[in-house]
Amino acid sequence: xxxxxxxxxxxxxSKIKTLYSQINKNISRYVSFDQQELEIFNSxxxxxxxxxxxxxxxxxxxxxxxxxxxxxxxxxxxxxxNGFEVILQFAIENAWVSDISFSIYExxxxxxxxxxxxxxxxxxxxxxxxxxxxxxxxxFERAFRILMQRSLAVTQDRLFNTIxxxxxxxxxxxxxxxxxxxxxxxxxxIASYLGISAEFLSKIRTKIAKL
Amino acid sequence: xxxxxxxxxxxxxSKIKTLYSQINKNISRYVSFDQQELEIFNSxxxxxxxxxxxxxxxxxxxxxxxxxxxxxxxxxxxxxxNGFEVILQFAIENAWVSDISFSIYExxxxxxxxxxxxxxxxxxxxxxxxxxxxxxxxxFERAFRILMQRSLAVTQDRLFNTIxxxxxxxxxxxxxxxxxxxxxxxxxxIASYLGISAEFLSKIRTKIAKL
DNA sequence: CGCATGCATTGAACTAGGACAAGAAATAAA
DNA sequence: TTTATTTCTTGTCCTAGTTCAATGCATGCG
Lengths: 211, 211
Fold this sequence. Notes:
Two copies of one chain form a homodimer.
Chain A: H1 2-27, H2 35-43, E1 46-50, E2 55-57, E3 66-71, E4 74-79, E5 85-91, E6 96-97, E7 113-116, E8 120-125, H3 127-136, H4 139-164, H5 167-177, H6 181-184, H7 187-194, H8 198-209
Helix pairs in contact in A: 7-8
The first copy, chain A, binds a DNA duplex through residues 166-167, 186-188, 196-203, 205-206.
Keywords (chains A, B): Kinase, Transferase
Organism (chains A, B): Flavobacterium xanthum
Pfam family, one (chains A, B): cNMP_binding
């Protein structure tokens, strides 16, 4: 009996500890928290395992989570008027994904989809838990403000690139910026992220390879 | 003596009151504050009048302000590798402008310029004042987080449009979204904002006019 | 007032990137 | 292993948008 406990339960406890320390490290990046605050935070998170090719959010639904990617890879995308997918974000280890856009144009339903591309592990955070967190440990308000601010900076930078750079430049910059991602996800997803057609990306790649 | 006071000073006091109520209304949009909190907030703001065509921020400088536009219009823009301006934001009455990007790639100097397009009135907010505000009235952390969140949603939406829509669609959507702006700023600025050439925007406009 | 500088328009030639189609390669499924 | 499905490549033709003039129109400014 004790043997079973040691063999199965202890490693699990140890894994969970590692997972919490992963997200705690992330949230403490710009604001430092004491042990008690982190425990409040951790108690409000829900750990979740999701197989690949699973939809976390469908068009028109209300997004009732913020997800921290412990492991795996997801894409967040829109579908435009002609039925084309436009990928807004890849989220891999230690990134956050959620849809915040619904709050803007309250009348229009959100067109955002969020889908896992690999088997994933998440910490999920509901709006209610978030409110409770802010009530019990107001310092987190600050941490989330800074996270938001960084996302905004990244998005602005990407907007600038999208407007001012050629397809080749965008692709090279993508490779530099997300070196592992080109191995992990299909080319046509990268094309969709860069705002170019899959065929053209392929042509770019052969051109680059010939240099 | 009293006559002078009544004639000059009282109207000024009244104007200042109106100005404060304008920014207070804006900051209270998603979080409500009591009178005392608003007074702390107001005491940390600096009111500033700036003539048109003035640079508030130059490339490479550190952005040491967040500006609330009381009156007037400014543009925030990057310059790309070929020397072309790309306008990231127009800020008019009741909008905030600042450069938050410097915090991301700490090594590279910021390429952002902020310039007034009309005679402007601002409330300026320094990073130090902001910290002091958060210390003395932590509720503001929340308000600024939500402002950030809205900016992010707007920017994401714009990124999506930039990628997925044609120039005509983008222009029509711009007109709908910022109806007054097309009267207030030069066409080529709007073209730069939409990510198209000034000539092509002109062609689009004549095409639209003929319908 | 005339002049200069910036702004909008129009046209002609050009190009980056898209759309479509058809095959090759790779991955999954059976 | 064979088959099926998805992904990647390559070629041809096509178009949205650019670039580079040249010209007319404003607007400010000495």
